[in-house]
Amino acid sequence: MDGVLVIDKPQWLTSHDVVNRIRRLAGQKRVGHSGTLDPMATGVLLVCLGRATRIAEYLAGSEKTYRARARLGASTDTQDATGTVLTERPVAVTCEDVEVALGAFRGPIRQVPPMYSALKRQGRALYELARAGVTVEREARPVEILALDLTVCELPEIEFVARCSAGTYVRTLAHDLGERLGCGAHLTALRREASGNFAAAGAVPLAELESEAAAGAWARHLVPIARALGDWPVLRLDGPAAHKLANGQAVSWPPDLGGDMACALGPDEELIGLVRLDRATGLARPEKILH
User: CATH no. for residue 24?
Assistant: First the structure.
């Protein structure tokens, strides 16, 4: 089967754990996720099945919305509540101070990825090095915080909602906020409320999906590949053009179609693949063929 499952991930499962459980219930090996969630986190996890695994990287690149809770006054080695406390400092700040400090993180910023992350260094995940007691230099990376709102301030606990670009570490955002306030901070709870067009309100809890699998009804939750890319421009092709594209040839890009990439649909509305505009020629060239 092909499509995307919008899962509401439970706490304390890794994203890979969820993939493995869906592999078993679907009875197929070609399953992957789009956008890792830490074990402590809950919320939207997009799981791709079959041909949909080929669009996982594009889904992963969409913006995310998180609701996070943090405790001021202590920093940890993982930047969240699962880690070892490194420093404890008095919380001599007000809610107004927190609000002002948050302003420094809105817009384009640079983040140093945490050691406890899945990023690779010479073939090894950083978290593996961290568990071995090894710390390596990490280069700051550009991310963008599109919106950042303080929703609860009950010092030393705060809650905030962040809408951000792909690749943003909310743990690091909480840590860096604590450093800016001079008291330290770490994340205590995290929920991904949206990933691209998919919100937690429409996600299916993993336990519910597994119970439906026993009755053979789980597949009703599959989102078709084309709909999973619902915010992309659509290039509709007639039969001959669809055949050309499916065979790796460029096709015409209508002048009224915006953007740089589009979903190419055949006359039956089935997704043939993803195309990219070649501005030098005005043609749509195949980026990834799924048909």
Answer: 3.30.2350.10
